[in-house]
Design brief:
Blueprint (H helix, E strand, L loop, with lengths): L1 E5 L5 H6 L6 E8 L10 H6 L7 E7 L2 H11 L8 E4 L11
Antiparallel strand pairs: 1-3, 1-4, 2-3
Length: 97
């Protein structure tokens, strides 16, 4: 999974095209709902506070190469100043039959 933290939205055309492309499953664009945070904890104060992202993009895929290529080639210009990370599935919970 590729995650991207943004301060601005990106075009949805690219995201909408991903499920049809080899190596990808889907993509979601999340917007900060603006929930009011409670008082900072001591740990947050020591760290200098926690920042929230205005927008988050989640791209699901079955090919790490496809995710890396997307991040390096197609999203690097579309999302300047963003923070991108690729995560591998470590554990999954499923229901019992």
């Amino acid at each position: 999974m590729l995650t991207i933290r943004l301060t601005h939205s990106i075009g949805t055309e690219l995201l909408a095209s991903l499920p049809a492309r080899k190596g990808f499953v889907g993509a979601q664009l999340l917007r900060d709902a603006g929930a009011v945070q409670g008082a900072q904890t001591t740990e947050q104060k020591i760290r200098g506070g926690d920042q929230s992202a205005d927008w988050v993009v989640l791209v699901n895929g079955y090919s790490v190469n496809a995710l890396e290529s997307l991040a390096a080639n197609e999203l690097s210009d579309a999302a300047p100043g963003s923070v991108m990370r690729i995560y591998n599935l470590a554990y999954a919970l499923t229901g019992r039959p």
